[in-house]
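Entry for pyridoxal-5'-phosphate complex. Fields follow.
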Amino acid sequence: MRHCVRDVGSFERLLGIKLDQAERDAFHQTVSRFPMSITPYYLSLIDKDNLVNDPIFMQSFPNHQELIIHQSDMADPLHEDKDSPAPCVTHRYPDRVLLLVSNTCAMYCRHCTRKRRVGDLDSIPDKETISQGIDYIRRTPQIRDVLLSGGDPFLLSDDYLDWILTELRAIKHVEVIRIGTRTPVVLPQRITDDLVTMLKKHHPLWINTHFNHPKELTKSSCRALAKLADGGIPLGNQSVLLAGVNDCPRIMRVLVQKLVANRVRPYYLYQCDLSEGLGHFRTPVGKGIEILESLIGHTSGFCVPTYVIDAPGGGGKIPVMPNYLISWSTNKVVLRNYEGVITTYREPDSYEQAFCDRNCASCDLQLNLDSANEQELLGVEMLLSDSDETISLIPKGNERYERRN
Ligand SMILES: *Cc1c(COP(=O)(O)O)cnc(C)c1O
C-alpha cells in the first residue's frame, strides 16, 4: 500500500515510458478532481505497448474525459447518502444493509460509482463511528444480512475487521455477513493465511469480488481466490459493463467461465451508473442484453450473472434480460430458446388456486411459523396478493387523482 503509484513520474518510471506534455497536463487536471492510486501489482499487469486499449490501464489511469460532466450525471445517483439512517449505514432494502467500514481502497478504480468520495478522506472510520452503525443494526431486527463495503473492508487490519465481525455475529438476527472487496483483483497479496483463519471464525460469511476482465485472473489472484474458497467462503463476482474494457460477448464469456473455474459464481453484471466522471465508460443497455443473450443457454447456468441497472434515486437494482416469453393464451405459453427455437408450454387444465389471506395457520401448506418472518406486502407483490385490496399503485402527485380529492 505504501508503494501505491500516485503520481505521473512514478508511473512513467515504473513502466519505462514517457508521456508527452499534453498528456501530462491532462493527467494533472484530472487528478486534481479525481485522484489516482494504483497498486504496484496491478500496474505490473499493464501492457505498455498498447496503453490506449489495455483494460488494466483504462481501469486504473486517469482519463481526461472524466472531467466531462454529462447532462444525466449525478454526484450521488443511488442516493446512498439520503438512505443513511445512521453513520456508515445505507438501508435501502427491507432485510439487509450496507455497512461502510472503510473510506479507502487499494486502487482507485476509474469507474468507481462512489467517485465523489474517492481520496476525500482516505481513512478508516473509528470504532465510535462504526459502533453507531452497528447499534442501528442491533436495534433493527428485520436486518438479517449485513454487507460490509466501503471503500474496501480488506484494507482494515485483521484485528479491526475481526472486531467488527465479532460485534455483528453477536447480533442474533444477523444471519449472514457479506464482504465486498476488490483486493483479490488489485492486491491479491492481502489474502493471507492469517486473514482467512480469522474470517473462518465468522461463518456464514460470503465474499463478493470485482473482476471485470479475464486479464485480471492472474496466478496471484487465482491463488487468493483459492485460499478464500478453501476457507469455505462462497465467492461471488460483481462486474461493471465498461465501454472499451469488457463490452464484448466473447470477453464476457471467457471472464465468467474463468471465474467459475476458480470457484467464483458470477453474481451481478452492472450497467454503469450515472455518477459524475463515468460518461466515457457507459454503454447502451442493449449491449448488456446482447451479452446475456450470448451467455444464457450457451454456457453453464451458473456462469450467467444477473444484469442489473441500479435505479437512480435509490430504487435499487433492477434486473434486465432478453425476452424469452413471446406470447400467452389461457392455457399455453409461447417461448423461444437461445437457439431461436419457438416452443410452447402447455399449462395445467385445472389448478386449484388456494386463496391466501396470509393466515398461514389455517393453510394446508407446511410452514414452520417460528422460522418464517412475516414481511409486509410491498409494491407489485401487493397487487398480486389475495389479501390486499389495492388494485393500483399511483405515483405521488398524479394530477388526475389529486383532482378527485
Ligand atoms: C446492492 C445493495 C445491497 C445488496 O443487494 P443484493 O441484491 O441483496 O445483493 C444492499 N443495499 C444496498 C444499498 C445495495 O446497493
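NOTE: The pocket of pyridoxal-5'-phosphate is lined by residues 90, 92-93, 96, 98, 147, 317 (CB under 6 Å).
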